[in-house]
Design goal:
- The structure is a homodimer of 539-residue chains.
- Chain A has 539 residues and is of the alpha/beta class.
- Chain A folds into 2 domains: 243 residues, Aspartate Aminotransferase, domain 1, CATH 3.90.1150.10; 177 residues, Type I PLP-dependent aspartate aminotransferase-like (Major domain) (Aspartate Aminotransferase, domain 2), CATH 3.40.640.10.
- Chain A is 41% helix and 11% strand.
- Chain A contains 18 helices and 16 strands.
- In chain A, the strands form 4 sheets. Chain A has a 7-stranded mixed beta sheet with strand order 3-11-10-9-6-4-5, with helices on both faces.
- In chain A, a hairpin with a 3-residue loop joins strand 15 and strand 16.
- Chain A is globular.
- At the A-B interface, helix 4, helix 6, helix 7, helix 8 and strand 3 of A face helix 4, helix 6, helix 7, helix 8 and strand 3 of B.
- Chains A, B: Its cofactor is pyridoxal 5'-phosphate.
- Chains A, B: GO terms for molecular function: (S)-3-amino-2-methylpropionate transaminase activity; 4-aminobutyrate:2-oxoglutarate transaminase activity; pyridoxal phosphate binding.
- Chains A, B: It is an enzyme of class 2 (transferase).
- Chains A, B: Keywords: Aminotransferase, Pyridoxal phosphate, Transferase.
């Protein structure tokens, strides 16, 4: 018994460490962890039967209905299967091994990518887990999608995987076509210009830079660059170094390099101890739910936040810290899946334009199809195209679209050695084809509806645990628990029952399934969530 | 004749645009471009004969001597072969195509990576060019190295190419071993800790952040983090946001995100129009050459620069803008291949340590073997291991080594979605094996000596064009022309004769050959350079 208790204590500490490390306020709950362990050997959940004929049926369907077929990734598991605690003993050993080399406190578990397939990730202990977090929303088609395998098996493509160029100087022949077939084929309305980058942070940093250049050129009004500008910027001084700023919103997340971090405000763990620039910050709407019962309050909230935007423009522009751009997520993801109305974004565009600044939509997390459109802001019916749309994650390459007026006037300004990675664009080209062929944006809409209906139903049935603020577009859904502690427990229990979700904000669970997430997967998820809500012990 | 002149004018404008776009002060020289065109059809340079038996002989050599064998990459061309101007008409068309999608002013030419092999890059017009720039020093083993092909052909490895994880949360099983076999197997002396990142800028940004955390924790002296710190940092205010700084050197290049840009001072084009932080800057030694004739002056130069470092520490620390770290390149590459003595670096380490700051060696360009050691600073005989060594480029993945005291205390602080890319580490693991198997660091030493001897000889024979400041370690060599205009012409003529070099600084040409660059390639390069020096027309 002593050993058993010791084991549970160790496990509890381990879990607490892991959840804390991602910023959750986890309070060790020996009771539920203990009970979970006891129960684990007694029941064997989730033996959803594989529909053996679905593969066959799939091939009989017309293309337009393929997304509705039962099997999009042949051979995918029929449900989660959990044999150990998550993380299990093998993962824990590997975490200890990794921790000798680097701080490993953020690792949830080690993964057996070879045996992962479709929506199911298999961990090092052989647990098969329904993954609705998709590598922080970054893997579009699930694990080992057969079409992705084809890309890397093609000898012509392998050239790109092993000869990474300095893309800004020596691109491969055919590169403009590759960009056209991939990024530009799904560009936001009105966009014909695109630059690739390696990651989301670099994408935002370079969009900021492009906005600064554009703003300064407007100020110059055609005057040539002075010697003083050229010499002063070398030592970080005016006039060559500008006092320009980018406005951002409370609760936002735009990356973790120092420029991006200045515009990030979601959680102190990202920012504490680091220097930041003095850039303007406005409030982002925080709506009351259900939306239909709080129309007036929420309209007032939009007005309050937009007034702050106007005010920040005035304060900073008057102080000579000219606001060259406003960066905003269409949905604040890391900050807790905070939504704002289309009207808010329409007005924000109007105010930004009026103040001579660029609107930078950070679609790093919202882009790539999870909202049922490639770009979340396409749901907002903006009067004009966004000035910049930045991306990464599900697009496999980082980068940004921008309107032609934001093209740099000189080389090397929006630049680095690699400027992205053509091999990622080859993969993206195939993703775009599969999304079209398998009608996956329609699927996102259908699966999203199923998810939202189910979540709303559960929030009505479990008001003691779930707040009545289920929200989402497509499968980009989230819900709040009634306390941070309950969120931690729900997140933990979901994992133990074979569902990998994503925590965000204070007490939110976000769902970021793959684009091959189907209504049947939504059913499985909702069943597990219901079970978890019944089990929650946190008072 | 009118057409021909029109053609030359267009070509001249095009070349001028391209060279200017990379910051060279190019002055159109219709004469030499015209003469080059005329001569092109008359001679057919560079028909070095392939030694047909060398493949066979190679296999008979003991491993220790493999690097001396004639053929390291079977099938490699025996010399450059140029059929058109560089860039040729096909490249120029593709540049025009790309320019419709993005500003393409930095592109030299489009490349046929499929037909490139070893040290020779083939451009879209079929010109085979001896590449001593290696994609801005980023590709270690040349084009289509057979061992690199094996990595991507292996079905087990293909898993990593198509299932990119959020590495900080869900690493693949076996990941600690992969890090051990690759990055840690070639770690700088004294280093056991490594973090991966996607690119050089992110590597430096995160090393800065780790230094800031470490410095703040020292200041706290074990006190816990206050609520005020947590809340103030969210809006970029003290005490949570710190006034900490990183010291850098004039002429340095550390990347192009806003934090890195604050420490970059090599050329105004990188910095103009962007905001920068107020961080300390000291002078980097500028030696008189030949070194042996200026020992006293150069020692004084070291002292002058080190006194500035001390002074900057005092000024910034006294002002409360505490200097948490000093970032420095072992050789300032982008800034013009500026070397400093081992004694300078030894003293810099001593001063940095005395002031309680971290020494961050930026080996993004100098690392990976081109100096004959994996890390250039290993030539400096530093009394202690460097606190941080950042890398990217030839290491294929970005990241940094750091001493154990710089480990973060919490997760998510040195973090982003991808945290590098395991597929790059798989490639690196093979590179490290090949470097060892083929004794490539020894080869770098031998080829480097050949290069340096040849360059010195040419600088003696062509004092009207080449400055007497040839410098280098291993194959990481550079030389100056006697004016920026001559450098531009030499760079252009080298390209036309089938050699791709790299410009840097004001009037420098840098050589960054692959690790499979052999003495025979050095001979070819030196022959072409001699030819170019004879042809130079710029007065």
């Amino acid at each position: 018994m002593k050993n058993r208790n010791g084991h549970i204590k160790r496990q509890e500490r381990h879990i607490a460490m892991h959840i804390r490390s991602v910023g959750l306020q986890f309070h060790p709950k020996p009771n539920y962890i203990h009970q979970f362990e006891m129960a684990l050997s007694k029941f064997n959940l989730f033996h959803y039967q594989l529909n053996a004929v679905s593969c066959f049926l799939n091939r009989q369907l017309p293309k337009s209905a393929r997304c509705l077929s039962t099997v999009l990734v042949p051979g995918e598991a029929s449900g989660p299967s959990v044999k150990t605690t998550v993380p299990g003993p093998k993962s824990r050993q590997m975490i200890a091994d990794l921790d000798k080399i680097q701080f490993a406190g953020s690792v949830f578990y080690f993964t057996d990518y070879k045996n992962s397939l479709g929506n199911y990730v298999v961990d090092a202990d052989g647990n098969s887990i329904l993954d609705v977090f998709s590598q922080i929303s970054s893997l579009p088609l699930g694990y080992n999608h057969p079409d992705m395998h084809k890309v890397v098996q093609d000898p012509d493509n392998q050239i790109a995987f092993i000869n990474r160029p300095a893309l800004g100087i020596f691109p491969a022949q055919g590169w403009p076509e590759k960009l056209t077939n991939s990024l530009l084929s799904v560009a936001p309305k009105g966009h014909t210009q695109v630059n690739t980058m390696a990651c989301g942070s670099c994408s935002n940093e370079n969009a900021f830079k492009a906005a600064f250049m554009w703003y300064r050129n407007k100020q110059r009004g055609g005057a040539s660059i002075s010697d003083e500008e050229n010499s002063s910027c070398l030592v970080n001084r005016a006039p060559g170094s500008t006092p320009f700023t980018i406005m951002s919103f409370k609760g936002s997340f735009h990356g973790q390099t120092l420029g991006c971090l200045t515009t990030t405000h979601s959680r102190s763990i990202f920012k504490l101890d680091f220097p930041a620039l003095d850039w303007p910050i406005a409030s982002f709407p925080r709506y009351k739910y259900p939306l239909e019962d709080h129309v007036k309050e929420n309209e007032a909230e939009d007005r309050r936040c937009l007034a702050e935007v106007e005010e920040q423009f005035e304060i900073y522009n008057k102080a000579g810290k000219f606001v060259a751009g406003v960066v905003v997520e269409p949905i604040q993801a890391e900050g807790g899946d905070v939504h704002a109305s289309p009207e808010f974004f329409q007005q924000l565009q109007r105010i930004t334009k009026k103040n001579g600044a660029a609107l930078i939509l950070d679609e790093v997390q919202t882009g790539g199809g999870a909202t049922g459109k490639y770009w979340c802001h396409e749901h907002f019916n903006l009067p004009d195209p966004a000035d910049f749309v930045t991306f990464s994650k599900k697009m496999l390459t980082g980068g940004f679209y921008s309107l032609p007026e934001f093209r740099p006037q000189q080389g090397l300004k929006i630049f680095n050695t690699w400027m992205g990675d053509p091999s990622k664009v080859l993969l993206l080209e195939k993703v775009v084809q599969v999304v079209k062929r398998d009608n996956l944006l329609k699927l996102v809409e259908l699966s999203g509806k199923k998810l939202m209906d189910g979540l709303k139903d559960l929030s009505n049935r479990f008001p003691q645990h779930m707040k009545n603020n289920v929200r989402g577009i497509g499968t980009f859904c989230a819900f709040d628990l009634t306390s941070p502690q309950k969120r931690d427990e729900a997140f933990f229990r979901l994992q133990q029952h074979g569902v990998q979700s994503g925590p965000c904000g204070e007490q939110t669970i976000r769902l970021r399934p793959f684009l091959v997430f189907q209504p049947k997967h939504a059913d499985i998820f909702l069943d597990v969530l219901e079970k978890v809500l019944k089990e929650i012990q946190t008072p």
